Amino acid sequence: MDTMELLLKTDIPNMPEKEYKLKRLSSVCGGPVIFKLRGLPYSRATELTKSQKDDLNVHILLAGTIEPNLKDPELLAKFNAVTPAELVKKLLLPGEIEDLSRCVEKLSGYRDVTIEEIKKK
């Protein structure tokens, strides 16, 4: 079967999702603090790259986070944050923000080898 036939008979799945436990916050909170992340479609990744020159990692993380709901008014109030971006900066260390942002990027197909060369026989 050739590539065209394979593509025509396939439904593209939803963006990949994974869960990541934050070690420091889990220790501080006394239970597992888990972020459920999802990859971003091309249009959203491009939009963020063009529009968010400052705090790009924070906005990639916000766009890719399914859980916890970082826009929840109760959570924002608890940490005295006006915006979800401000909450992320208060809740997480810079390295944690970068690590989680990179996880979203990997789920989106970046920072990973996604192709392989076909060698002629």
Automatic annotation (TrEMBL):
* InterPro entries found in the cross-reference section: XkdN-like, XkdN-like_sf
Pfam families referenced in this protein's UniProt entry, alphabetically: Phage_TAC_5
What protein name does the entry list? Phage portal protein
